[in-house]
Amino acid sequence: MTESYLLVGASSDIAINTAEKLLSKGKSVTLLARNSSRVSHLEEMGASVFTGDALDFEIVTTALEAALNKGNGKISGVAHLVGSISISPPHALKLEDFDEVIRTNLSSAFLTLSLAGKIMLRNGGGRMVFTSSVAASLGLVNHEAIAAAKGGIEAMVRSAAATYAKRGIRVNAVAPGLTDTRLAEKILRSELIREASEKMIPLKRINQIDEIADSIVWLLTNAPDNLTGQVLHLDGGMSQILV
Fold first, then answer.
1. Which residue range forms the structural domain that includes residue 78?
2. Which parts of the chain register pLDDT below 50?
3. Which CATH number covers residue 32?
4. Which of 7, 32, 113, 187 is spaced 20 to 30 A from 79 at the CA atom?
């Protein structure tokens, strides 16, 4: 049977790498991307591409139905890879900007969880992966908005894992530290900032894109069936150890 996967937020660097890895393994892949031009080469590799916002009920539903059809009536896994970076102290952040961070990251994750969950309940299970951040478990300066959003995702993942545990649905998350992506370009705009960032990390280096993508693919395809409600801290030890 064809294993079918949906990636929501598919125009990010990590999502693109994840899709490439899934396609190379012979999996069926459906993508929901805001910027379809960034994933055109994936379409040439066999992926189905839908363009739209992860907060749009209709387009998320359409993408899920397409993945369902490609999987002959079953979706093996869904990854929500939507993310943003907002670094600003609370006194300088407008409420509407805070709300936008929450909607972009947490509300869209809930929509994916809700819609994918309905399908997986009907079809005997599946796997879902969400994206958190080191900021959810470690107090970082000026990260209040993204910490709130990603902390909410981690709490949601644990609760959803409990809700669906007896129905064959496994729900997990990855929580990367700083990763060398387009999204992090502003943070890593100079060697001084890069060096200062590396010094905060026990392993003394920035994440590479394929390290995060490999972990997502593993959770979607090869992770043990008893792994659920977990957060993989992919941050070079930053959130867990002190050296």
1. 4-234
2. none
3. 3.40.50.720
4. 187
